[in-house]
Amino acid sequence: MYEQKTLLEAYNAASIHLAGHGKRDVEVLKQAFAGIEGTISSDMYGSGAVIEDFQTEMAEVLGKEAAVFFPSGTMAQQIALRIWSDRKGLKTVAYHPLCHLEIHEQDGLKELHHIRPVLLADKDRLITLDDVRNIGEDIACLLLELPQREIGGQLPEYAELEAISAYCREQGIILHLDGARLFEVLPYYGKTAAEVCALFDSVYISLYKGIGGIAGAILAGSEEFTEESKIWKRRHGGDLISLYPYILPAQVYFRQRAGKMGQYYEEAKELAALFNGCDRTATLPEIPVSNMFHVHFALSKAQVEPVLIRISEQTSVALAARLKETGPDSCSYELNIGDLYSGIPKAKLKEAFELLDRLLQEA
Amino acid sequence: MYEQKTLLEAYNAASIHLAGHGKRDVEVLKQAFAGIEGTISSDMYGSGAVIEDFQTEMAEVLGKEAAVFFPSGTMAQQIALRIWSDRKGLKTVAYHPLCHLEIHEQDGLKELHHIRPVLLADKDRLITLDDVRNIGEDIACLLLELPQREIGGQLPEYAELEAISAYCREQGIILHLDGARLFEVLPYYGKTAAEVCALFDSVYISLYKGIGGIAGAILAGSEEFTEESKIWKRRHGGDLISLYPYILPAQVYFRQRAGKMGQYYEEAKELAALFNGCDRTATLPEIPVSNMFHVHFALSKAQVEPVLIRISEQTSVALAARLKETGPDSCSYELNIGDLYSGIPKAKLKEAFELLDRLLQEA
């Protein structure tokens, strides 16, 4: 009896993937370490050249006084908000309803730090200056995420961002950047990381999104802020004896990929246009402003899954590993362009998208 | 002008080290990964064969229903105490005054979890059944550390441990094991890990002490307990996208070294006897009960440092990387036996200890 493959199985079996840098496997680690001298010593509880040099490098890139390496952004950002709340003597912060802290962290901010978030804007749009003007209560800190991942990676216009920053400074509101994908938006803004970060008091960046490291994050700001963050890092259990298995690959892949974000951005626009050319398919944003976008189908998950499985089996091109149900007749998924996309023959793409268009019409 | 080396510089320059498994450097990582298939996939946020298989293996070794891999013991243990405190509706736990949570974690337990510790026993001795009987207030949980690291790695007699466990069960006090060095004490107790763990409701073990992994910890207990710990792991920022750079070496080194703890223990006794044969030198415990002990000198740090530097320069044997001042005329340091010790020629040891004895007499 023939057993239908699941979408994830079909994805894993396919030889061509649109998104990402490749598999997250042991080989990635081996490759990252292959070029590194065996005699280099581990960091030790936050000290040592391996961690200190990378922190200095990142502080310079971000234009901040100092930077601290964290095992995760979850830890780094809760700590940033805790420090600012303590500084202001105010247990209230503001962020987007789909902020990572609100939907992906099991309420760590509330359960561990007893900080209450004020949710700004609607779920399906960006925070505007007007939203910030109309908070209506005192907040210690405003967190902005660039790009806003859960709505396809949308971005405010740069002038709006500058206006929000100026308003916060005027009002004594601390501004924190969730820059998990900061490097990914620099080509659209036409700014350096330091220029964008200058608008913020503190900044978090991820080292495994567009950069493609193994895991890890950087929290940057004033020396006073980062020193305090190290105390909280110890409290959270993040001041590990050795973080070098994350730091060294982060350094390798940062140097390899930070300069390729413009390429990924152009490729994302090209790929989004291919999706938008298909029946009952639309990307969000329509024209990407970074390496990422969401693909929305005006068909149920149960209708789209067999289409994507058939495409991967017939063309070897895997479009998605999983779909998210967004309604009875709609579903979506996220795409992040990385190193893989440029290696895909254009004829293969054409074949896959012609088939997608046809099968969606028939679905 | 001749510049005197510091003790740490002399230690690093010496070719023979008494303690540990060797350098914590990039080579250790490369070696751990050399024997592992490149195609093995990373864990993903706590899922995947890499993490699940190791957790199952550790649960079996510890004789518990389930086990969870954590990036650090700091995180694992705060979470264990939080879960038990919540379960009992009681924000009080008891532990030794030199417990890791009390002296090495920047008060994370208090600052993040608002749990108040009751300190049992004096700093320089173990917790006894009498101490537990006389707490005089309700506690949710008692934490016992085996061996008690900060006092040289001392251990209660097994019968005492059984009596404390029975008393806690009788009284409805949860018993948690800080087993950072659990495998290291099994040869002395003549028990399996599961036998010792059966006395406890929850257990933490470290994967980089005697085991010699890169970093990481296991928290084990009932399925209900470990499932709750995963929620807190996410809240703490410890549910990383990828923990495999720690898990795979932990598995490699666990299999390599868990069976060598008896050898390390015998070697620790041999080495302690060599120290105890020297002038103004005593080990704590006098006869080790694990792979570790502390060396105490009845001389000031300023007097002992040049002695140790001279020994390392003259014999290539480094006895200590640093000394802790314990009084105006006393200092000490910790020794943990690992793979290196058995490779040291006995004649070298004899030469180093004869010189130590002579120089301390002259100091």
From TrEMBL, chains A, B:
The keyword Ribonucleoprotein does not apply. Its cofactor is pyridoxal 5'-phosphate. GO terms for cellular component: cytosol. Residues 42-282 form the Aromatic amino acid beta-eliminating lyase/threonine aldolase domain. This is L-threonine aldolase. The keyword Zinc does not apply. SUPFAM superfamilies: PLP-dependent transferases. Keywords: Pyridoxal phosphate. GO terms for biological process: glycine biosynthetic process; L-threonine catabolic process. It comes from the Bacteria. PANTHER family: L-THREONINE ALDOLASE, L-THREONINE ALDOLASE-RELATED. GO terms for molecular function: L-allo-threonine aldolase activity. Belongs to the threonine aldolase family. It holds the Pfam family Beta_elim_lyase. Signal peptide: none annotated.
